[in-house]
Structures are given as C-alpha cells and as structure tokens.
Amino acid sequence: DGGITQSPKYLFRKEGQNVTLSCEQNLNHDAMYWYRQDPGQGLRLIYYSQIVNDFQKGDIAEGYSVSREKKESFPLTVTSAQKNPTAFYLCASRRDGRNTGELFFGEGSRLTVL
Amino acid sequence: RKEVEQDPGPFNVPEGATVAFNCTYSNSASQSFFWYRQDCRKEPKLLMSVYSSGNEDGRFTAQLNRASQYISLLIRDSKLSDSATYLCVVNAVVRATDSWGKLQFGAGTQVVVTP
Asked: Which residues of A touch B (CB under 8 A)?
C-alpha cells in the first residue's frame, strides 16, 4: 500500500541534543512538507520541498533543518537551537504543490524534551 | 488576525442531531479548500474537498461562500464516530506568477457526539 511512513512515533530527547525524524513516502509525490502541531493551534509549516535537492523555509524554520536528497525521503532534524521542541511533528506529501490535490499525512512523531 | 479561523468548540451534539460550523479565511486569492478530520493524537485525514458549487458526501455537506470568505461543514444524523476535530485548510496562491499554493490550516473545531 502506498503511503507515508514516519519514525519514530515517540521520541524522548535531553536538552541540547539534536534529533532526526524520518519521513519516507512511496506515493511518487513531488512535494513534501513538515508541520508542527501544538495543543490548541493549527498546523504550522516548518519546511517544504517541491522537488529533489530543493527546499524552502516555512513559517517556523528556526532551529530545524531538512534535506531532500531523494524524492521519497524528507528527514527533519530538530537541533538544540530549537527553544521549545516538544510537539507533535507531521510529515505530509502532495502530488505537487499546485492548487489541487490532497495532502497525505504520516502518522506523526511525538517528540518530548526532558 | 489569523489567516484561517475556526471556532474551537467543543460542539456537543446528541447522537442523530445535525451540527454545522464555519471557517473564515482572510486571503481573497484562496483557490482551493478542504476539510480534514483529526482524531485525538492521530494524523489529519481528508474528509472533503470543497467545490465552488458546494458538495455533499453522505451525511456531510460542505459549502463555500467566496463573497463572505468562509466555508462551512454540516454533519447530519451525527454518529458517535463523528467525534473528532475538524480542520479547515485553505490553499492560496501567494504570487500571481506562482502556481504553487500555500496551505493554511485552521486550529480546528472539536465535535463531541454524545449518546
């Protein structure tokens, strides 16, 4: 079955540590996104990529980094520079970034900083 | 002002009743609209795309009002399984020369269907 796989589902990190969240899709989608969700807030865009080897900052990119070396993979690194990293992280993909088309989400990664 | 606004609720609905709620958006260049459903601690999943003429999918009806810049979702004959948070998603073209849209999410409307 086609879909998006995120790992790990749950992650605990000590302050000062970097952590990388994996996102893989086999939908052959061009566009991939990383969102952060906090309680009572809408999804906020961290980074997005419309094509391999290219990505753009979203609304809250500070303290995060990404890469897009392969079409199917878009990992997110939460660095120690991110001041409040505890959140639910969602990876999504879309056939392309144009005005139509469903956004497909992975199951999410819940990061807790101890 | 937020670009996409929703009443957070919760809307407490007796089983079998009808519930409706709106989502307002600020960018008049918005071109496509969606309702997503999100269960507690799960990922959002597409419920409906919203077409300009309005559309219906079983017990769910979505409407678009471009003049007043809002979309609505109506759920008829509510089921216990309809309890969830409903996210409004709006896609707007940021620049006239750019066909790649920017997706904006509302914070969601919580619906609780009670027996």
From this structure: 33, 35, 40-45, 50, 88, 90, 96-100, 102-103, 105-108, 110
Please tell me the predicted confidence (pLDDT) of residue B75: 98
Q: Give the pLDDT confidence of A40-86 residue by residue, as tens digits.
A: 788 999 999 988 999 999 989 999 999 999 999 999 999 988 889 99
Indicate yes or no: CB of B43 within 8 angstroms of CB of A90.
yes
Q: Name which of B4, B93, B108 is nearest A99 (Cβ-Cβ).
A: B93
- Inter-CA distances, A78 with A25, A44, A74, A86, A112, Å: 20, 15, 13, 10, 11
Confidence of residue A95 (pLDDT cuts 50, 70, 90): confident
Conformation bin of residue B58: beta by default, left when phi > 0, alpha when psi is -120 to 50:
left
Distance from CA of B56 to the nearest CA of A (A): 17
Tell me the one-letter amino acid at A34: W
